[in-house]
Amino acid sequence: MSRICDFTGRRPVAGNSVSHSHKKTKRKFYPNLQVKRFYIPEEDKWATFKISTAALKNINRKGIFAYIQELRKKGVIIKY
Question: Please, what are the domains in the chain?
């Protein structure tokens, strides 16, 4: 399973783990992804998405259907 947000496209980024002596080793920073199930009343469907918590905040603010419509206008392909 890939660790990519279905809505925002956030994915792991690489960086360094820095010790007390400033010795650097490679590591990854993973996005905070949650698997959520939403009911979309306009389409009378249930949909499951793997989304970042930033996307979840936007959904709570705007509503799931409005947020999906906004993403589709930007060209993001969302399947459910």
Answer: 13-74 (2.30.170.40)
Ordered per-residue pLDDT tens for the chain, 80 residues: 689 999 999 999 999 999 999 999 999 999 999 999 999 999 999 999 999 999 999 999 999 999 999 999 999 998 88
61 burial via Cβ count (<10 Å: 0-12, 13-18, 19+):
exposed
Q: For the whole model, what pTM was predicted?
A: 0.83
The answer to whether 13 and 58 have CB atoms below 8 angstroms apart is no
